Amino acid sequence: MSNRLPPAWAKHLKTQPSAKAVAPKAALPKARPKAIPPRSQADDMLLRQALELQKAEQLPEAEELCLRVLNRTPNHPLALYILGTLGIGYDDEKSLRYFARAVGEEPGNPYYHLSLGETYLRLSEFSLAIKHIQHALELKPDMVEALCSLGAAYNAFDKGEMALPLFEKALKIDRSHSAARLGLPHTLASLGRMDEAAVHLKEAIERRIAVPAAYNALVHTRKYAEEPPELAAILTELQDPDHRPQGAAALHHAAGKVLNDLRRYKEAMDHYKKGNQAGGHKFDLETYRRWVDATIEIFTPESLAAMAAYGNPSEVPVFIVGMPRSGTTLTEQICSSHPDVHGAGELSKLERTANGIGLKDQATANLGKSIATITPQLIKTLAEDHLAYLRERAPDALRIIDKMPHNFELIGLIAVLFPNARIIHCRRDAIDNCLSCFVLQFNKAHSYSADLETLGLYYREYDRLMCHWNKVLPGRIFENRYETLIENQEEQSRRLIDHLGLPWADDCLRFFDRDGSVNTYSNWQVRQPIYTSSVKRWKNYESEIQPLIEALGDLAEV
C-alpha cells in the first residue's frame, strides 16, 4: 500500500517518499501546505517509522504507530492522513473518516482534499468527490493527480465531455504521467472516439508508459479482421520478466482478444487462462454458498412484507441486475434512451448500505442478527438517503437506473427500501455469459471468474438466489432475456418500457445514437446496432471449456 505524502511533511520528517511510496500517479510537486503546527520529535520519529512500515506493506504495524501518535497528540493531521491511506482498497469507509478528520485539521492542504475526494469516488459519492477534488485544484491548480482524479470522477458520472479537457491539461503539464496518458484515451473511448483513443494509446506504448494496460485498452478500440503488428508486440512484451503479475495478466488478455477476433480460438483460450492465472485471484465458494443459504432463509415473503411496509413508495428507482456480461449495459442504454429515464451507471450505494447493516458479511453469514437491527425508522432513513442520492443525478427524471449487476444479491434490500421500485433481471445463455466473464480481466471483486469450474459453480449459486427472489417476490422482477432482445429488439424493448410504467418512445430503438459517455467493457458494442455474433459464441471454445460446462450442469444449454 502506498501513500501520497504532502511534500512539506516529507521535508518536515526528513524523509522524501520513494516513487514506490507515492500513490501510483506521479512524483509530488514541491508545494507546501499553508501551515504546519509544531510537532514533537517523538511524533516525527514514529511517523517516519510508520511510513517505512507502509512501504514494506506491514500495514498493521504502521497503523499501530500512527495510533500511538494520536494518543499523544490528538488529531495530528499527518497521522490521520497516513491512517487514511492504510485503508485504501481494504476499508474505504475507514479511510473516509480519517481523511475527513485530516481535512478538518488542515483545510488548506490540497493533498488531504484530494485523497478524501478520491475515496468518495471509490464509494460512488460523485458529488462529494468532485467537491473535494475541485477544492484541491483551487489550492493547487496545476496538480496533475487532482486533474486526473477529477477527470475520472466526471467519467464515472458519465460526463466524459467534462473529463476530456482535464486530462488534456494534465498531459500538457506532465507528458509522462501514466494516469493522464491512460485517462485521456479512456475518456475518448467512452465518448465513442475510438480512433483518437488508439492514437493516444500507441503514443503511451511508444513512451513506455503503463505498457500492459495501454495494450489491453488499445486492442479493445477495434475489431481485427487480419493479424495486426500489435499481436507480435504483445507476445514480445510477455517475454519481459519485469512485468508484474497484473501487467502479465493484461497482456495475456490483450493477446486473447486479438486472437479471438482472428478466430484462432485455441490460442486465444490459452492466453485467457494464463491471464487469469497471472491475476492470482482465488474465490471462497463454500463461504459464498453459506451466505446464499442464509440470505434465502432470512428473506421470506413474510419478513419482506413486514419490512417493506416502512419503505419509500417512490417509483423513481430502477435496478438492473444480473451476472456481469449478461446484457445489463445494453438494457440500460435502451431504457435510458427514453426521455423520462436517466441511466446513472453502476452505483455502489446499495452495496455500501448493505455493508453498513451487515447484509453482505459473508465471513459469518449471521444475517439473522443483522436483520434484527433494521428498525422501521432505519428503513425510512436509508430509503430517503438513497433516493436523495439518486436525485442528485437527475432531479427531474421519472426513472433513474442503477445498473450494478451484482445487486442481484441485494434484491431483498431493494424490496424493503423501495416496494415500488422496478427490477430488471438480465439473463443470458449460461455458457455464453460465463465465457464472456472469463475472457475479461476483471478485478479482485470478480475473483469467481478466474477459474472455469469455479465460475460455473458460482453461476449456479447466482441462479439459485434469483430463483428465490422470483419465488418470494412474484411478478416484481422482469426477466430480460438477452437472446430474446437480440431476436426481436423492438418487441422486447417495448416490454421493458412498459415494465417501467412509461409510454413508448421511438428513441429507444436508436439507443446507439445517444450522446454522452459510456463507461463499461461494452462501450464499443453499445454504440452499434443490435448484432447476433455473441449468441452461442461459446461453441467456438467448446473443447476448451469443458470444466465450465460440467460445473454448470443442467443450466448449460448445449
Describe this protein's structure.
The protein has 558 residues and is mostly helical. The chain has a domain at 285-555: P-loop containing nucleotide triphosphate hydrolases (Rossmann fold), CATH 3.40.50. The protein is built from 27 helices and 5 strands. The chain has a 5-stranded parallel beta sheet, sandwiched between helices. Helix 8 runs parallel beside helix 10 (178-190), helix 9 (160-173) packs antiparallel against helix 10 (178-190) and helix 10 packs antiparallel against helix 11 (194-206). The radius of gyration is 24 Å and the shape is globular. The two termini are 45 Å apart.
Strand order of the largest sheet: 2-3-1-4-5
CATH architecture label name of the domain at 285-555: 3-Layer(aba) Sandwich
Helix percentage range: 55-70%
Backbone structural class = mainly alpha
- Give the strand tally: 5
Q: How is the biggest beta sheet arranged?
A: 5 strands, parallel
Low-confidence stretches: 14-37
Helices, by number, come to 27
Name of the CATH first level of the domain at 285-555: Alpha Beta
What fraction of the residues are assigned to beta strands by DSSP? under 5%
| Overall radius of gyration | 24 Å
Measured between the Cα atoms of the first and last residue, the distance is 45 Å
- What is the CATH superfamily of the domain at 285-555? P-loop containing nucleotide triphosphate hydrolases
CATH topology of the domain at 285-555: Rossmann fold
- Shape descriptor reads globular
What number is the mean pLDDT? 89
